[in-house]
Amino acid sequence: MSAPPSPSPTRWFKALKRTKSGESCMKTCPVLCAELLNRARAAHRAGRAMKESFRHAQLEAVVRMMQDHECDFVDALGKDLHKHRFETVMLELIMVKNEALYAASNLKRWMEPQHMDRTLATSLDEGLVVSEPLGVVLVVGAWSSPVQHCLVPLVGAIAAGNCVIINPSEISSHTAALLLRLLPSYLDNECYHVLLAGTNDLLEIIDLKFDHIFFTGNGTLGSKVAQVAARSLTPVTLVLGGKNPCYVDRQCDIGTTAKRIAWARFQNAGQTMVAPDYVLCHADVRDQLVQALRSSLNQFYGSDPRESCSFGRLVNVETVKRVKDLLWKSGKVAIGGQVNEAEKYVAPTVLTEVVETDPIMQHEVFGPVLPIQTVNSLDEAISLIGQQEKPLCVYVYSSNSKVVSRMMRETSSGTFCANDCVLQSLMPMLPFGGVGSSGMGSYHGRHSFDTFSHRKSCLLRGTRIECVTYLRYPPYDDRNLSLMTWASSLSQKGQGWCQIL
């Protein structure tokens, strides 16, 4: 199937926002979405996406799309985020391929009904848990990792047998336009659709009543999405941002710690939901950490990161102004600090002498700035983390296993990683998601399949034990109740007294 011509991203989004009569022949987003939703619903009712062979074929098509158009994705993300090919391939394309391949290789096992354990009282019954698709789901992607945030949930929804409408972020417009062009050439045109809708239309679109909403983005918009979805009792999965703390203990390999933190914080110019947002550093090693960070940044990006092709740019001027305002009003610049609004450039920056009340400690940074707050003990670090909203990720660097265990046990977060950053969000075997203000629900691998499935309880019975079950029928009799109470006491503890029924 030949691909339709690629539209100009700017023209698409501007046209979709026009509402005045005669200004554009294109339909408004809610009207277009309603039409796509009706098509997808018809496909779902027809069982088009249910068969295992169909799901396999669609997952393989996702892999093929990633392979065939690697250069196109690299080019689009380069235009949107000045993202280097290495970061695009490793953290976007390979991640999507891994998810699709993992789902395809495990799909048969995931789809099989799960049989419940039998007891003496249920020896003639068959209890099953059957995973059935929810229906038509909406996946709303974020601009910071626009391929990953759209296609990894799509993989889970396909594996679970759903029809899907994807809404890429209008901010990463080149990537959104590329997805609009490519998906119809690889995936079923009735089951899977791409909608280029802006943020202003999103809440109206959600009101159209999907069977599930999967949203990745900031907490403010995520809260509104959940409120609108609640009006129609639509379940939601929210993957939100937050301030991810990173504790650096005095017992750790400072050189390796600095490299891993610098890589995680400054890749994609700091525009990553799972990056460490601030460091709580033990006072004994703070100066060593700053020096090691300086050395790592010089090794990564050279003496002038502005000239490095490995260092990205912020997505727009508004983001540059926000990040600049935060860094200039907080702490003391120890490394970097240069800003060029015209180039959307903020240098990799490390701040020291940061205190809790600084603006940068009150807001998510989402830029290449790393504040370092000094603490005097693990207890102080745990206390400071506990005073904040629950983050998406907690990180700790320590060679002392007791420090790692305490941090894992005494803090609450969506995910946790010791002696590295970000990697826990890339593994299909591990669930990924937030808790509290950092989100609800999880995905990746089997967890994506479960997120987009309804686990239906099924009990298959015969009529051969009516000689026992007649005891439950009216008129109620104390003798029958005594017999049932006695019979249930013979069952194994914890099996449930009602099995005799």
List keywords for this structure.
501 residues; disordered N terminus; six-stranded mixed β-sheet; alpha/beta
How would you sum up this structure, described in words?
It is a single chain. The protein has 501 residues and is of the alpha/beta class. It is 43% helix and 16% strand. It has a seven-stranded mixed beta sheet with strand order 10-13-14-9-8-15-16, with helices on both faces. Strands 5-4-3-6-7-17 form a six-stranded mixed beta sheet, sandwiched between helices. Helix 10 links the parallel strand 8 and strand 9. Helix 2 crosses helix 8. It is globular, with a radius of gyration of 26 Å.
The helix tally amounts to 17
Low-confidence stretches: 1-7, 15-26
Distance between the termini: 58 Å
Q: What level of helicity do the residues show?
A: 40-55%
Approximate shape: globular
Rg of Cα set: 26 Å
Number of strand elements? 18
Q: Characterize the largest beta sheet: strand count, sense, and whether it forms a barrel.
A: 7 strands, mixed
Q: Strand pairing plus helix content: what structural class? A: alpha/beta
Average of pLDDT: 91
- How much of the polypeptide forms β-strand, as a percent range? 15-25%
Output the strand order for the largest sheet: 10-13-14-9-8-15-16
